[in-house]
Structure formats: structure tokens, C-alpha cells
Amino acid sequence: MRSWGRTAPARAPSQRFLLAIHTTRSLAGLFMSFQAPIEIPGVSNYDFLLMAINARREKDGLPALGPLEFYSVVSQKVEALKMEPKILDRNVNEGFSGGERKRNEILQLSVLGADLALLDEIDSGLDVDALEDVAHAVNGLLTPQNSVLMITHYQRLLDLIKPSYVHIMESGKIVKTGDSSLASHINEGGYKSIASFV
Question: Sorted alphabetically, which keywords does the UniProt record give (predicted)?
């Protein structure tokens, strides 16, 4: 762990272990969004993203990006997500609305990339326009080399990001699998209608 201009606070062994797990997952190409992304006071989005991308580049044996070089990369991502450039100066999720937090997570995914992205209710707290922007960004990140697992309760997200598979879970188990028509079936008939889905 690097500290930038100040000493990092001491962490309890369990905190160090959890940090190591998250770092290992990220460096392995796993990205996870959260229903309620946490605030990181005192760390700007720009610094957070620069440190994260350079950690990934170091792992891949690539040279670190300098601040100006990174700014040209990240500013394009910010513009593509229709976010204000000042988002980079704000502390990570501090004082953000629910929609801003979700967009910020998609910005992180856009900058860092991932082999597997787990997106937990990225549609919650988004108005119609923000949902379309986020869906457009996620669709732009999909390639044959990566996968996205989305958790949602609403058809509207699936209308914008077409899934290859839909899995219905109950009590921690997958009880039904199908294509996007399964989600449409549930949207029309509710979860009770699963039994009649062929």
C-alpha cells in the first residue's frame, strides 16, 4: 500500500486481510459495484482512479501513467458518461446523490476495465435519463472477452442492456434460467408465473 503525502492509518489484521482480498480481486480483473457505494473522504475521484489504474498497470508490467496522460484518458470517460468534469475533483462518493454514486461506479469500471463485472442494482436511484446513460456506458464496455453479471429487480434495465441469460434466484438458489424472455414473462405475470414459463 502506498501513501501519498501522509502516513496511512494503522489497520487491524482483519482490515489488512480484507484490503488484501479486495486488491487481489481487482488486480485479477474482477469489478464489483455495490447497492450503496461507500464514501472515501479525503480521496478525490481523480487520485483514486489514478492509483487504481497504475496498480493494475504495475501488475501487468506496464509503466505508470503520469497525471497529465491519465487526465486525457479519464476526461474522455467522464464525457462519455455525460458527467461534469468537476466530478474528478470531488471526493469518492462524498455527498453524492444515489444516481451520482451509480454513475461514479460505472466511471470506475470504464477506467479500470474488468474481465468480470458484478453490477448490483445499478438501476436503483437513477432517473430515466441517467439510466439510459449508464446502460449505454455498460453496453459500450461489453466485449467477447468480458462478462457482466447484473442484479436487478426491474425490467427497464433489461430493456436497455440485453442479457444473454436470465437467472431467477430464491433463497440463495437459482430456481429458473432462461433468455431475456424470462424477464419479460416475470414483468408481465410476476414471480408466481415462473412455474408456467417454458
Answer: ATP-binding, Nucleotide-binding
CA angle 69, 72, 76 (to 5 degrees): 150
What pairs with residue 118 in β-bridges? 32, 149
Q: What confidence tens digit (pLDDT) does each residue in 104-145 have? A: 999 999 998 888 888 988 888 788 888 888 888 888 888 888
Query: Where do we find the cell 475533483?
Result: 89
Q: Which CATH architecture has domain 35-150?
A: 3-Layer(aba) Sandwich (3.40)
Burial of residue 44, with CB atoms counted within 10 A of its CB: 0-12 exposed, 13-18 middle, 19 or more buried: middle
Contacts for 43 with CB less than 8 Å, ≥ 6 apart: 91, 92
Q: Give SS3 for 34.
A: coil
Give the start-to-end residue ranges of the domains of the chain.
35-150, 163-198
Q: Is 37 left (phi over 0), alpha (psi -120 to 50) or beta?
A: beta
**Could you give the C-alpha distances from 158 to 5, 19, 133, 142, 196, in angstroms and in order?**
44, 33, 14, 14, 21
* Cα-trace Rg, the chain: 19
Strand locations in 33-142 (E) = 40-44, 91-92, 116-120
